[in-house]
Amino acid sequence: MAKPLRIAVVGHTNTGKTSLMRTLTRDTGFGEVSSRPSTTRHVEGARLLADGEVLVELYDTPGLEDPIALLERLEAIEAPGDERLDGVARIDRFLATPIAGRRFEQEAKVLRQMLASDAAFYVVDARDPVLAKHRDELAILGACAIPLLPVLNFVRAPAANESSWREALARLGLHAIVRFDTVAPERDGERRLYEKLGTLLDEYRAALERLVASRERESGARHRAGLRLVAALLVDVAAARVGVAADAESAPRAVLADLHQRVRRREQDGVDALLALYRFRPDDVDAASLPLLDGRWENDLFNPETLRTMGIRFGTGAAAGAAAGVGIDLMLGGLTLGAAAALGALAGGGWQAVQQFGGRMLEKLRGQRALSVDDAILRLLALRQLHLLAALEARGHAAIAPIRLVDPQLHQWREGALPETLLRARAHPEWSNLFGPARGDDARQAVVEALAGELFEARRP
Amino acid sequence: MPVPDFVRLSAFEARWLAEAIRLREEAGGPLADRDAVAAARAAEGDLEARIVHRAGQLGARDGMARTITSWRARSRLLLMLGAAVALTGGFGAALAVLGDGSRAVNVVWALGGLLGVHLLSLVLWAVGLAVGGGDVGGAVGRAWLWLSSHTATGPAAVHVAKALGGLLVRAGLLRWWLGAVTHGLWLIALAGALVGLLVTLSARRYGFVWETTILSADVFVDLVRVVGGLPAQVGFAVPHAALVQASGAAPVFDEAARRAWSSWLVGCLVVYGVVPRALLWALCLGLWRVGRARLRLDPALPGYALLAARLAPASERIGVTDADPGRFARPRANGPHTVAGASALLVGLELPADAAWPPALPAGVRDAGVIDSREERRRLLAALQADPPARLLIACDARQTPDRGSLELIAGLSRYAGEIRVWLTEADVAPGGGRTEHWREALRDIGLAPARIIDSAAMALDWLRGGRAEAENG
How far is it, in rounded angstroms, from Cα A158 to Cα B410? Predict the structure, then answer.
């Protein structure tokens, strides 16, 4: 196995070096992050793995705090005799002096790590002005003679001085620069970071490409798994059906309340599963970015206000009343959603649908009516879950929420027709997990897959 | 330590076990897997290999692996039983169709008896393949699968059975696998019939006839010719028209006629029965083998995606390689002291280039400019040394992070001035005031009491003028 690429993460104090480490390692517990300066006072490493192979070693370092004085010290170092010192020799001599262990303890750690690394990320808080201390800092780091990739952090902040940083870095000969928000990186931010690094380190380019490919595979698999969870939830709820006596004027309250409760619980299970999938703990620092309160939705699913805030209109059907959220399926009584669903099922389900249709006829003859969950609630569930999924993927990516709201898929869920696969599920109460384990495994699985596939297709640009 | 069961599983069975474990965990919550995960992480390979490894450990522990090995043994036994039944059934069918020789053989009945059910099931299989749905793979194969699955015992047998179906359906392999079983058993049955046919035709004398009430003899002549056309291509005989005409009245027993009819019958069985089944069996078996070799677990299934973070983490910690010594060199600022001069001086420390500098200064207050680089620092210190001011106001940008370099400079400046104050500019507009607090803390740490920190321009200039701020703080 080839030797892993060692990268030192360096920068001025409080620019987000440990945040960068956390983002790149996917380890939210790495080191200690705070807005206070000089939080990290030691060098701590982490290995980046792809398919079990160590490809990169990252080292988090303390911030450089007094580069002006340090550069002065370094420049004052003279060789015995007439010998001229290059940057590395100068730093070596400096590290041997006693002051490197006292006043410049932190800086000495950074320099030692720089000399032991193949490359370095120089993390910049783009909100800071470019000052003489930063230039001196870069002069010192440049003397270590390893490729240095400036990483512009907080570039999306309104106070960011990106252009002045770029200009200053270019004047120091640093033309490969990458924008990377360490807390909420853009979707392909990590790829661009490693690609830029690959241009500086030719011999490690293949390894970096493997790392990027592995990361993208992981996130793709997680995304599809999330969509499958959403699809399974929707099928469970769409397929749920409970029989009530037809002569009852309205569905008994207890039955309604029970159905409501089961749907709520199922939704919470879905939320928990998504949170677990994205390894999200409600006490995580960026929990506030999620549309949840302590891991729960703030608004009740069956509150009409919730529907309105999500932009879902009630149909004219039976749902728009006190029994919000439950459609009463009067299969032969009129054009309610039940009939529509049955027609949809007939169109898509072939013989099995005919069997189902027969089953409903039988129910009707037995004097029963079927209670199922209303379309509006399905839409709401879909919207909330997709919203949560997007929020989890963005992880505090503040800019992404407004973009998602005009997402054509969300529009489709809000106002368009429900997917045919869901309508088919309407006709198969045995696919629902709401009342005990589902039956008809293969067929249910196929529908969940198909729905997840539709969600996946729709989300692509 | 006994050899764990999973080492005896084939690659396909190991994946099947992983799938069964996934279903079991989905239904009943996660299994206790600390050791299994540790073992899987120690193993080489990608995520899928680790998922399979973990499942192997868990399956060996609680016996699910044995459920699979016993499933394999049982399904083989069932398959052998089925083969025996098919062989005897086919042989028996041939005997039954030809009879004991006491009666002439009705060729049309004989052909229908030998090939009818087979052709019907072949058509059903093809329809199932084209339409998809629940009956894919042929009835015989499905019956075998049903028997194998429903006789399964052992822990979580239901998950084992479900996992097999799910895995194969998702990969689109069930049809080829069951197809291979269906066609294989039919091939054996038809081969049995062929043997039966050859044995009885060799050892007994049969006369061949055809019978009709309403059809003309030409129909049979054409039928025999058309049906025999394909076998004739590979060398089987077709009874000529005159012979067919003659056989309509009474069995023809001359040698040529016997041989022609029996060759025709055997040819039909081979070409319409044995050969298609053999080809389809080989095709299904080939597709099944190829598909099985390509089969991979889908890491995008929620159960596996959850495991990914634990089995193949994106990173592992190395730990601290260069420890914090626990001490921290910190400069100290001087307190107020008497100096020779009596002037007031304002200096900006590392202010951004776009800062409005200097502010409108009261009379008698000098501006030392904005200090940034090493040279500017040196010049300022030299100037202060030559002419120490009584009051020095140092303006710092509260939006920036205080660092040791700035604090050292502030502490250094305090030595050359009678009294200093630090003015945190932009303290009121700094986001959240977070860094203002850091400045206050850092300044307190170097010995500057909160009273020596000013955060509004008016108060700062007042103090420089020697006005109220001093009176209050003094």
Answer: 30
% pLDDT > 90, chain B:
20
Whether residue A44 and residue B315 make contact (CB cut-off 8 A), yes or no, is no
**Winning range, highest mean pLDDT, from A254-258, A274-278, B67-71, B267-271:** B267-271
Q: How many angstroms away from the CA of A246 is the closest CA of chain B? A: 34
Does B35 map to a domain?
yes
Using a CB-CB cut-off of 8 Å, the residues of chain A touching B404 are: 13, 38, 65-66
**CA dihedral over B74, B78, B81, B87, signed as positive or negative:** negative
- Among B286, B311, B336, where does a domain finish? B311
Distance from CA of A196 to the nearest CA of B (A): 20
Please report, for the domain that includes residue B405, its CATH number.
3.40.50.300
Res A332 pLDDT > 70: no
pLDDT at A282: 59
What average pLDDT does the segment B231-237 reach? 87
B60 against A350, higher pLDDT: B60
CATH H-level, domain A5-200: superfamily: P-loop containing nucleotide triphosphate hydrolases (3.40.50.300)
Cα A229 to Cα A189, A388, B310, distances in angstroms: 27, 12, 19
Interchain CB distance below 8 Å, A30 and B162: no
What local confidence, expressed as pLDDT, does residue B376 receive? Answer: 92
> Is residue B356 within 8 angstroms of chain A, CB to CB?
no
Residues B67 and B204 in one domain: yes
Cα distance between residue A9 and residue B341, in whole Å: 47
- Assess B470–A contact: CB distance below 8 Å, yes or no: no
Q: Has residue A353 got a pLDDT over 50?
A: no
Domain with CATH 3.40.50.300 in chain A: 5-200
Sheet-wide strand order for B391-397? B365-371, B344-349, B391-397, B419-425, B453-454
Which of chain B's residues have a Cβ under 8 Å away from the Cβ of A113?
321-322
Assess contact for A31 and A169: CB atoms under 8 A: no
Question: In 3-state terms, what secondary structure has residue B322?
Answer: strand
Number of folded domains that form chain B? 2
* Interface test with chain B among A20, A33, A42, by most B beta carbons within 10 Å: A42
Is A269 within 8 Å of A348 (Cβ atoms)? no
**Is residue B62 domain-shared with residue B128, that is, in the same domain?**
yes
Q: Quick check: B472 contacting A, CB < 8 Å?
A: no
Please give the mean pLDDT across all residues of chain A.
77
Q: For B166, which of A36, A43, A441 is closest by C-beta distance?
A: A441
Q: What is the pLDDT of residues A154-207, one digit of tens each?
A: 888 888 889 999 999 999 889 999 999 887 777 788 899 999 999 999 999 999
Q: Which of B50, B165, B305 sits opposite A277 (nearest CB)?
A: B305
- State whether residue A35 sits within 8 Å of chain B by CB: yes
Q: Which of residues 6-35 of B touch A (CB under 8 A)?
A: 27
| Shortest distance, CA A307 to any CA of chain B (angstroms) | 28
What is the value of ipTM here, to two decimals?
0.73
B2-45 tens-digit pLDDT: 444 445 788 899 999 999 999 888 888 888 888 888 888 888 78
Together in a domain, B306 and B378: no
- Give B173→chain A minimum CA distance, Å: 14
pLDDT value of residue A432 = 85
Whether B338 is in a domain gets the answer no
Residue numbers of the domain that contains B408: 344-473
User: Could you tell me if A434 lies within 8 Å of chain B, comparing CB atoms?
Assistant: no
Which of B316, B376, B442 faces A47 most closely, judged by CB atoms?
B316
The answer to whether position B317 is within a domain reads no
In a shared domain, residues B88 and B151: yes
